[in-house]
Amino acid sequence: MGKYKKLYGTLLLGLIAIIILLTAVFSYSRSIEESYKEENINSLKELSNQGALMLHNEIKNKQNLLAELSHDVSRIFVNDPQAAAAYLEEAAERNSFKRIGVALTDGRAYTTDGIELNISEREYFSKAIRGHTAVSRNLDDYTDGGRIAVYAVPIFEDGSDKRIGVLFATYSLDTFRKTIEVSFFGGAGYSYVVQENGDVVVDSQHSESFKNFKNVYAALLTADPVNNKDSAEKLWQMINSKKGGYIEFYNGSQKYMYCSPIGVNNWMLLTVTPASVIEDKINMVLNKTYLLGILLIAIFLLFIWHIMRIHTRNQKELMDIAYVDEVTGGYSFAKFFKEAELLLPETDKKTAIVSMDIDGFKYFNDMFGYGEGNDLLRYIWQEVKASLNEGEILAHGVADTFIFLLRFDTREELLWRINDLCLHLNNYITKSGQVYKLSLSMGIYEVDGETDDIVSMADRAYIARQTIKNKGDTAWAFYDGAVRDKLLHEKEIESQMEKALAEGEFIAYYQPKYSTKEQKLIGAEALVRWRRSDGIIVPPYQFVPLFERNGFINKVDRYMFELVCRQQMRWLKQGLLPVPISVNMSRMCLYDPHIVDEYIGVLNVSGLSAAYIKLELTESAFFENISIMNNVIEALHKVGIKVLMDDFGTGYSSMMMLKNVAIDVLKLDKSFVDDIGDDRSEKIISNIIYLAHSLQIEVTAEGVETAAQFEFLKSVGCDYIQGYYFGKPQPAEDFAALLQKEFYDGSDAGADKKG
C-alpha cells in the first residue's frame, strides 16, 4: 500500500508540474507577443518621427536656399527679370528643382526652363508677395500637368524692405517621394505625406499601399468600411490635433500606421508597416517556445518514468560511483566534500585542508607502466590514511591528486605532521625493487572563517599547491595574501588577454644571432612582448607561464608566427635583406592535428620564403611525444622550414634522444653557458657540440654575456651565439637598423663587440 501511495504521490506531483509548466509557457508566450508588438510599434514611431524630421529639415533647407538666392538675384531682377531667371539655371539643376522662376508683382513669371506664365492666382504667390515664405499644397504643373509642390519667397529691393517680386522653385512630387522612400522592416514598410484634410501630398508606389487615392480618410473607408471606421476617426483626430499616434487598419491585410507632424503646412507623415512583419517574428518565437514546452514536458515525463524504473535497483550503485574512488577504494572527492562539511564545526581544534599531488607522475607512468602508477597511488593513500587521527579524512581525486583534512593546535604541530608524512612517502620501492624518490607538492589552507564553503577551501589549497608545483623536491606552501594577490593578478591578465590579442598589443622583439667564426649577423629569435595600450610593457614572466597553463599560448604563438612573416615581407619590400628569424612554438600546439597546415597556410598567404623563418620547440616538447614531434618536423621540412630544439639541458635531456629527432639546430640552454669556467661543465659542453655535429646538427649557445664565454664556445666549435654579448632583444625598427648597418653600410656589427 505504501508503495502505491508513493507512486500516486509522484504522479500527482508530476501532473502539477506539467500544469505549472503549461501555464508558464502560455504566460510567457503572451508576454512575448505583447513585448514584440510594443517593440515594433516603438520602432515604427521612431522611424516615422525621424522621417518627419528629415522632411522638415529638407523643406527648411530649401526655403533658406531660396532666401539666399532671392538676395543674390534682386539686383538683376530689377533690371531684367528674364536675365534673373537665366542666372538661376545652375541653382535649379544643382538642387534638383524642376525649375526656378521669378515673378513680377502682377504675377507674370519667367522660369529657368524658358517658360513664361502667370502665377497670380497661385496661393503661394499671394503669400510670398505679402512678405511670407510659402510652401504650396499639392498642385498640378501649369506646363505639363505633373504633380508638384512649390517653394516661394519674396524678392526685396536691394537694401530695403520693398517687395518687388517673388522667387519660386518647383519641386516634383516624384523627387519628394524618393526622400521618404527609405527601406525599413525589410522593405515591407512605406510612407505617405498628407494634408490636414487628409488629401494626399505624396503617395507611395509600394505594392501594398493605397493605389491612386486622393484622400487618406476615404481610402481607409473604401479599403474596409467596417474595420477601418474607428481607425479613420482616430487618424482624423490625431491629424487635426497635430499630435502623433498610431492606428491599426486593414487594406487587404492588417497594418499599423504611425502619424507624425512634419511642421510645415500642417502636413503629416504617415508611416505604415504590415502587421505580418511583427506577427512573423512573434510566431517564430512562439513556435520555438511551444516546441520547447512540449520538449520539456516530454523530457520531464521520460525523466519521471526513468527515475521510477531504476531508482531502487541502482540506488546503491549510484552511491558507490559517487562516493567511492575506484583506484584506492577510499573516499572520492564528492564524498570528501560531503563529510568535511559535517566535520568542520565538530571540534575546538584548528582545521587545515591539504591538496597534494606527485611531481612527474606522468613520467613515472611512462617509465613503470600504469599498473605500477596505480600501486603508487594506493601506497600514498594507505600511508596518509595511517597517519590520520580521529575526525580527519582523506580522498583521492583525478590522476595523482589527493586532498585531506587535518586537525591541529599550532602551525608548528601542523608542519611537523606534514614533514613527518613526507619522510614516510619520499622513497617508494617498485615491484622490481627499484627505489624511486618521490617529489610531492602540497598546498595548505588553514580554515580561518573567511569562507564556510568546503569547495572554496579546497580551491585555495589547490592554488597554494600550484605556486610550488614542480620545484624538483618535496615542497609545501600555505595559502595567504600573496597567493591570493597572485591569483587576482593572473585573473586580471586573463580578462585582458583576448582584447590584447585582438588589438595587436603583443609585439615581437628580435634578439640577433651571430656566427661564431665570422661574428656576422645570421639570424634572430622573435620574442613576444606585451605592450599595453597605455604604453606599459608587461614582462614575459608575468604572462607566458600563465598562457602556457591556460592554453592561450597557442593563439599567441600563431599570432607571433604571422606577425614575423608579415614583418619579414615588409623588410623585403623596403629593400632590406632579412635574415632567418626563429619563432617559438609551444608544446601544446603539437596536439592540434591542424597546426602544421595552419602555419604553412600563414606562410603561403604572406608570400614569404620558408628560408626566412624557423620554428623553435622546447626540449620537453620533444621528450613528451617523439612520434608526434617527428611527424611535425617532417611536414615542416617538406616546405623548407627548419626546426630548432630550444632549452637543451633544462629538462629530461638525453643524448640518445638526439638520434630520434631530425632537428636542424640544437640550442644550448643558458645554464650551460653560465657554468663555463668549470672544467667538468666545459667538457660536457664540448662533447655535446661534438655529438651534435656528428649528427649533422648545428649548435647555438643562448645567454652568452661575456668575452670569456664567447671565446670558449668559439674554441669548441659552437656554430652560433645568442645573448647580450652581441645584442639584446630589440624592437623591429631597431633590428631593421641593425640589418641596414650589417649588410648595407659596410660595417661589421658583430666584430665590433668587445664584451
UniProtKB/TrEMBL annotation:
<dbReference type="InterPro" id="IPR029151">
    <property type="entry name" value="Sensor-like_sf"/>
</dbReference>
<dbReference type="InterPro" id="IPR000160">
    <property type="entry name" value="GGDEF_dom"/>
</dbReference>
<dbReference type="Pfam" id="PF02743">
    <property type="entry name" value="dCache_1"/>
</dbReference>
<dbReference type="InterPro" id="IPR043128">
    <property type="entry name" value="Rev_trsase/Diguanyl_cyclase"/>
</dbReference>
<dbReference type="GO" id="GO:0071111">
    <property type="term" value="F:cyclic-guanylate-specific phosphodiesterase activity"/>
</dbReference>
<dbReference type="InterPro" id="IPR035919">
    <property type="entry name" value="EAL_sf"/>
</dbReference>
<keyword id="KW-0472">Membrane</keyword>
<feature type="domain" description="GGDEF">
    <location>
        <begin position="349"/>
        <end position="481"/>
    </location>
</feature>
<dbReference type="InterPro" id="IPR001633">
    <property type="entry name" value="EAL_dom"/>
</dbReference>
<feature type="transmembrane region" description="Helical">
    <location>
        <begin position="290"/>
        <end position="308"/>
    </location>
</feature>
<keyword id="KW-1133">Transmembrane helix</keyword>
<dbReference type="InterPro" id="IPR029787">
    <property type="entry name" value="Nucleotide_cyclase"/>
</dbReference>
<dbReference type="InterPro" id="IPR050706">
    <property type="entry name" value="Cyclic-di-GMP_PDE-like"/>
</dbReference>
<feature type="domain" description="EAL">
    <location>
        <begin position="490"/>
        <end position="743"/>
    </location>
</feature>
<protein>
    <submittedName>
        <fullName>EAL domain-containing protein</fullName>
    </submittedName>
</protein>
<dbReference type="Pfam" id="PF00563">
    <property type="entry name" value="EAL"/>
</dbReference>
<keyword id="KW-1003">Cell membrane</keyword>
<dbReference type="InterPro" id="IPR033479">
    <property type="entry name" value="dCache_1"/>
</dbReference>
<dbReference type="Pfam" id="PF00990">
    <property type="entry name" value="GGDEF"/>
</dbReference>
<keyword id="KW-0812">Transmembrane</keyword>
<dbReference type="GO" id="GO:0005886">
    <property type="term" value="C:plasma membrane"/>
</dbReference>
